[in-house]
Design brief:
Order of helices and strands: HEHHHEEHHEEHHEEHHHEHH
Number of helices: 13
Largest sheet: 4 strands, antiparallel
Shape: elongated
Radius of gyration: 38 Å
Strand content: 5-15%
């Protein structure tokens, strides 16, 4: 039986049509129901598991029957001839007693079946990560579009202000041209962001066959915490033990070892027990011989032993092939282990560093806001020029984009770390869902609101403090 990472409850209530505003779990449920890759992987796993009953059948009794009929025309010189019919019935039962090659093939099939189950489970895990990446890429693109729209609007206001100041003689025409260039660039960025959003939705459509108008947004209050446990070595050890692809590669080694034993068993004797029955009715009746039609029954039973002496090099070649296959499986597993260890270490470092980076990026937004306000005030009193204002605006929106990028990267990298460790499950999406906001409006919420503490720090020129733990004291990442 396959090892599903999903449960029936997760599939209950999955709608056939996407709602106008859709949450992460609904998208995942629709992907489970409609993913062509998952369906193909399931069919492949089920097909490969059939190797086990096929191998088992080679160890069980074989029963066969046969029947036939014929018409004979017999003519013997100087004796005579006859025309007669002949029909027969046969039945045979064979039970393998010693078939080393088949026994080891059966053991190899067990490993193949386990490998198929694990690889299908790995595909299920990969679907969880694919859905998450597609979902949060849409949110990232939505926030980037909102940022681009806000930037375009700000540059439009700056252009209007530059024109007004030019008309009353408070600024040079250069300021108008600079503002116009900034607005044109912002408008082009907004058009690109709109295209990127449309493209990002297509990944969800590919996975689910559904079209979406909007998705639940992720709250800025999502706790950004280090991985638990806070030990890289523990994560590596867990990955080495539980990573599904790595486990599957170890079953591939077991299968290759048993296949090698099966090939070597080609030199061994074969012992079968048998029971055979035949009934032959017919025969010639030739004048002067006294021979008449006969009805013959024959039942035989016993044990047969056969010993291969020379097979033209076939067995030797199969042994060499199986040896190479075993080496391939061992080296592939070793390569997979190295990749898993590397990925786990890198993801752990990335997630850990993201904790401080997200906090720093958020603080940078506060600083960029304050810098823009100060630069705008300086422009109005004549101590700053329009280029300074445009650059301050660009810096603010660039900082917002950087903050959202690292925030979404943190979420995906956290899920990727769990996948590398073999612990990723639909429950991780459920945990994330509690931080999704159905009322999230990218045009309003793409930039985090400045808290009273952040405002106080900026006004006093103090240093930012580490982010507070969640109110419920939960130390988990999601």
């Amino acid at each position: 039986m396959l090892r599903p990472l999903t449960v029936a409850l997760l599939l209950a209530g999955a709608s056939a049509h996407a709602a106008a505003n859709t949450d992460l779990m609904t998208v995942y449920q629709q992907a489970v129901l409609n993913s062509a890759d998952l369906a193909a992987a399931q069919a492949d796993a089920l097909a490969r598991q059939e190797a086990l009953p096929q191998a088992r059948s080679q160890l069980l009794p074989n029963l066969g029957v046969a029947a036939g009929a014929s018409r004979q025309d017999l003519d013997i010189d100087n004796v005579g001839g006859d025309e007669y019919s002949n029909h027969y019935y046969q039945a045979s039962l064979t039970q393998p007693l010693f078939r080393a090659d088949r026994w080891f093939s059966y053991q190899a099939a067990k490993s193949v079946s386990q490998q198929a189950q694990l690889e299908f489970s790995a595909t299920q895990q990969n679907l969880i990560l694919e859905v998450s990446q597609a979902y949060f890429n849409v949110l990232r693109a939505s926030d980037n579009l909102a940022t681009a729209k806000a930037e375009e609007k700000a540059f439009s206001r700056q252009l209007d202000q530059a024109r007004e100041r030019f008309e009353v003689g408070l600024s040079a025409r250069t300021d108008v041209l600079e503002a116009q260039a900034g607005y044109d660039s912002a408008r082009a960025a907004r058009l690109t962001a709109q295209t990127n959003l449309d493209v990002s939705y297509q990944a969800l459509t590919r996975l689910t066959t559904q079209d979406y108008d909007s998705l639940y947004g992720i709250s800025h209050e999502l706790p950004i915490l280090p991985p638990t446990p806070a030990s890289m070595q523990q994560w590596v050890e867990t990955a080495a033990e539980q990573n599904l692809t790595l486990q599957a590669s170890r079953y591939a080694i077991d299968s290759a070892e048993d296949s090698l034993r099966s090939s070597k068993a080609g030199y061994a004797p074969v012992v079968d027990a048998f029971v055979r029955y035949s009934n032959d009715n017919g025969g010639a009746s030739i004048a002067g011989t006294g021979q008449a039609s006969t009805d013959t029954e024959l039942t035989s039973f016993g044990v047969e032993l056969s010993m291969p002496l020379f097979t033209g090099g076939l067995t030797t070649s199969r042994v060499r092939e199986s040896t190479y296959r075993l080496t391939q499986a061992e080296q592939s597993s070793e390569a997979q282990l190295r990749r898993v260890v590397e990925s786990t270490r890198n993801l752990y470092r990335t997630v850990t560093s993201s904790v401080d980076e997200v906090a720093a990026r958020r603080q940078a937004i506060v600083s960029a806001k304050a810098a823009l306000d100060a630069t705008q005030t300086g422009y109005e009193v004549g101590t700053r020029n329009v280029v300074d204002v445009l650059e301050a605006q660009r810096n603010l929106f660039r900082t917002v984009r950087d903050y959202n990028t690292v925030r979404y990267n943190y979420i995906i990298n956290n899920l990727s770390l769990k996948q590398a460790a073999g612990t990723l499950s639909p429950q991780d999406l459920q945990d994330l869902s509690q931080w999704l906001n159905p009322n999230y409006d990218p045009d309003r919420d793409f930039i985090p609101q400045t808290t009273e503490e952040e405002a106080r720090q900026m006004s006093m020129g103090g240093q930012p403090q580490p982010p507070a733990m969640p109110a419920n004291g939960d130390s988990s990442t999601f």
